[in-house]
Structures are given as structure tokens and as C-alpha cells.
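Changelog note: in this version the structure field was regenerated for every chain. One regenerated record is shown below for reference.
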Amino acid sequence: MTEYFIPTAPSEAELVEKRSRFIGQLRPVETEEQARAFLEAVKKEHYDARHNCWCYLLKDGPVRYSDDGEPQGTAGQPMLGVFQKAGVTNLCCVVTRYFGGVLLGAGGLVRAYTQAAKLALDAAGISVVRRWVEVEVACPYNLFERVKNEAAAQDGVLGDVAYTDQVAVRVLLPEEKAAPFAGRIVELSAGACQAVELGESFQAVPVQGQASKK
């Protein structure tokens, strides 16, 4: 089984610390060229900022970071640590600082850059990339909640739901969870319902109800 975690969407977040503005921007990327292009775009956008600190990391690729003039170890590396701790890859993050006239000290800088990166990741959301099996279950209305609960128990993600004389719901399941889910549906319905497999795909799906894989 192969799976990894990426940002769900581009994002931007901001905080103010002792009059300094920290603007965190995060982008999903797949290549170093994309990371560098995003970095240059942010530098151009915020050409008048005191610092544009950054980091990027790629699955099976390079990991880079820069303090961009801040004291060594107070910006790029703490930012990188946010994403490594969350287990997220294939991203580039730039935190722009507009100096507010008050020195923060090394500890203050580490906290501010860490928080800006974390806010950007929270705003982006996290998706898991892996192989999924899509199934469809048609069941009576009185079993619908139990089907949803079983899908959640198997780390499934609910898809389209059709309401007619019964409920037909599609569920994306991790490939190793498809068979146990199908067995539970037969058990819950006393054989009246089945999980019909529709196909497989390798794709990114937003992680539900958690901030990271940890």
C-alpha cells in the first residue's frame, strides 16, 4: 500500500505579531520548477517586504528552505518542521514579513514563522493520495445511518447520494477496506443489501476530521 499526504488547495493566512505582518502562502506543487516559480511570483508580489522566507518539500525529491535574511534557523527550518510533523509533502510555502519596527528576538521569530506556516496549512486542508475503491450501496432509509457509520469506521469517504424509494450512496474506500466494508453491509442488512464495486482509482481525497496523518 502506497499513500502520502498533500495540501488540498492553495491557501493564504496572516497574523500580526508586535506590529510585524506575517503572510503565509501555501501551494501544492509536484516539481521543483513549480516550487521555484511560485516562490518567484510571491517575491515579485511582495517585493517591498523585509523578508520572504520559504521552504518546499517534494515526495522523493529535494527539500529546501531559506531564512531570507532573518537570523539563521528562525524562519525556513521552523516552517519546514510544520509540514514534516504533519507528514505533508509536495508543497511550497512562503511567509512574507513586513517589519513593524519592533524586534521579536530569535524565539519570537521562530514562533511567528511556525504559526504562519501552520495557519496556511490549516487553511489549505490535507488530502491523502492513495488507491481507492468506489462502491455503491442501495439500502432502505432505516439503514442509511448504519451504512454511513460503517463507511466512517472503514475510513471511507461518502460521495453522491440518490434518494428514491431507497437510498443509493457511493463510498470511496481504501483498497484494503473494501472487502471488510462489503462484508459488514451484508451482515448489517441480513443479506438484503450489497456493496457493488464500481471501479478503482489512484487519487487525492480530502482527509475528514483530522489535521494530519498523525
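Spot check on this record: The chain has five helices and ten strands. The first helix runs from residue 32 to 45.
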